[in-house]
Structure formats: C-alpha cells, structure tokens
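R.M. (postdoc): so does anyone remember the format we settled on? I'll just put the structure tokens first.
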C-alpha cells in the first residue's frame, strides 16, 4: 500500500478519486468520503453488525478496525473524513490515526459535528447511546473537545441533526458562535434528519451563514432532493449521508428490484445505490459508512458502477413516503 500522502489509488481501487472543492469552503474533497458513525462505538443502527463485528468490541479492537478502514480509504484516494462528538471514540481514533500516519493538516478535509453527546458507556445494552442538546453551552464544550483531539485538522464543524423544530437555526447565541468560528477559518455546516429535512434545508439557506449541508438522500428517501439542489445553487457544499439506508440497500436487505439491477450490471447493490447518489448534480461528497475494508471497497466501486435514466425510472418505485422511511429507521435496533 502506498504510504499516506501519495495521491495513488493504492490497493483495492481501480482509479484515483478526483479532487474537487466543496461549495464555497475551498476545502478539497473527493466525491466519495468516509463517515465514522459505525466505527467509533460498539453499537449502532446499521444492519448486520453482529456479523460484521462479532463479540469482541473492545476499545483496542474497534480502534484497530477503524484504522484498517482509514488506511484502505486513504490508499483509495478518499480525502473527506466525517466524524462527530457522539460517535463514541471516533474522533479519538481518527486523531490517533492522523498522528500515527504522519498526515499533516490540510492533506485531508476533516469534518466533525456537535450537538449530541455519547452516553452509551461502551455498552451494547445501554438504555441510551446518545443525548441531543443544541445549545450554545454544548457548542462551546464540544468544540473544545473536538479541537483537543483534532487540532488544526478540523476543517468543518457541523450542527448535528438540526431540525426546524429544535430552534437551533434561530438561536442567536449559537449562530453568533458559529460566525466567530467561521471567521477563524473553520467552515460551518448543518446536518439534517427526519421527514422534514427539506424544510430544515430551506431554513439553513435563509440564514446565509452555512458553508455546507449534510442530509440523508437515497433510493428509499428522496424527499430532500429539490431542497439540496437549491442549497447547491445557493453556493453551499452538499454532503450526502446514509446512501445505503443503514444497510437496507446492501446485499443483506436490498429490495428485489435493486438486487436484480445490480446482478445484471455485475455490481453490488450498495455500489449501485451509491452510484444513484453520485449521479445527483448537487451531490458534493457521498459518504460511505463502511464497517470493514471489504464493505469500503464495495462502496467505493460505486464510482465506476454507472447510473442512467433507465435505471432511474426502473427503480423510482423504491421511494417511500418520508414518514414511513423515518419511522422504519427509528425502529432499527442498536446492535
């Protein structure tokens, strides 16, 4: 494998990922990025974690797994890495990897998020795994924690799962703190959640403050598409999460139509699902949430899987009502 810092695609990639700029941020990213939600904590809502991780979810084992996936992503040319305060030890694992591999600030674009705190105590059976608090006090506390780990590597700081109902986008204290952070050279963004993502994105655009928006869009949940197009037109960078719907669009649970289309094209269902996201003209970075090197390589093959109008029409029927989609997501068990 090529040492970190090279621009070679390295082992497991067929072509280097092209570099591009994310919206107005001037941050260099790649069309496919890596999100660490599934890697930084023992439990998450991705399907098949028992098979992926087994019984050994000690801190040392999870760190080693995270570093292996990060190594593979770097070798494949991935240069956007996404984490959050609530992803267990993900920021810590990422910081250690950056330090151990000698990666200098700016060589990769690192985005993190504030607003949720991890409270799972490294237990699979925790009554609660994270608690949400979108306050100015939480912002100050978590920014200090993120900076203590990531230092100058922190390129983008995002509100975690903002909604219109939360009021955070109208909280003058929070917005003023975000403006101060932006003035210091750190880009600021918002991630969205729930069946009213489009409303949240429209409010984000209205503020005129944010550099990026990160939202869920996939073959099952397309409701934010038009709003994301408007965000892109307004000059914002768009990051797409949950492109395989927490495992529902992988070989483990793919709808029959997606599985059949993938077989015909000799690709995996997850690659075809992510290819659909990559085909959206407003998508700046599409995140892989891979929990293993094998899953990462399957996800990254989306860059060459291809997407066309025939596929779009054929698989349009997979789209669910947003309320149904988010209700199903909310019922997924932490495992």
């Amino acid at each position: 494998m090529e040492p970190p810092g090279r621009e070679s695609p390295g082992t497991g990639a067929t072509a280097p990922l092209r570099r591009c700029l994310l919206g107005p941020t001037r941050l260099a990213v790649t069309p496919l990025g890596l999100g660490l939600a599934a890697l930084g904590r023992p439990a998450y809502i991705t399907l098949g974690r028992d098979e992926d991780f087994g019984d050994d979810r000690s801190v040392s084992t999870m760190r080693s797994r995270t570093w292996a996936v990060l190594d593979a992503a770097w070798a494949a040319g991935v240069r956007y890495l996404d984490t959050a305060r609530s992803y267990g030890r993900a920021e810590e694992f990422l910081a250690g990897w950056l330090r151990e591999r000698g990666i200098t600030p700016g060589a990769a674009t690192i985005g993190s998020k504030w607003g949720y705190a991890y409270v799972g105590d490294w237990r699979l059976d925790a009554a609660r795994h994270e608690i949400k608090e979108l306050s100015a006090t939480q912002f100050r506390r978590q920014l200090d924690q993120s900076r203590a780990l990531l230092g100058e590597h922190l390129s983008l700081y995002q509100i975690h799962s903002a909604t219109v109902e939360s009021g955070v986008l109208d909280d003058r204290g929070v917005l003023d703190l975000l403006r101060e952070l932006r003035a210091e050279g750190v880009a600021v963004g918002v991630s969205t959640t729930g069946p009213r993502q489009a409303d949240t994105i429209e409010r984000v655009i209205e503020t005129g403050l944010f550099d990026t928006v990160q939202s869920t869009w996939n073959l099952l949940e397309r409701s934010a598409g038009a709003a994301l197009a408007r965000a892109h037109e307004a000059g914002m960078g768009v990051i797409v999460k949950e492109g395989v719907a927490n495992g529902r669009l992988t070989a483990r649970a793919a709808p029959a139509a997606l599985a059949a289309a993938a077989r015909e094209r000799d690709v995996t269902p997850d690659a075809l699902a992510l290819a659909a996201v990559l085909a959206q003209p407003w998508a700046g970075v599409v995140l892989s949430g891979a929990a293993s090197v094998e899953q990462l390589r399957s996800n990254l093959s989306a860059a060459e899987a291809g997407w066309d109008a025939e596929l779009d029409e054929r698989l349009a029927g997979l789209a669910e009502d947003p309320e149904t989609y988010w209700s199903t997501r909310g019922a997924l068990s932490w495992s």
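R.M.: ...and that's the designed sequence above, right after the tokens. Also worth knowing: The chain has a mean pLDDT of 94. DSSP finds twelve helices and twelve strands in the chain.
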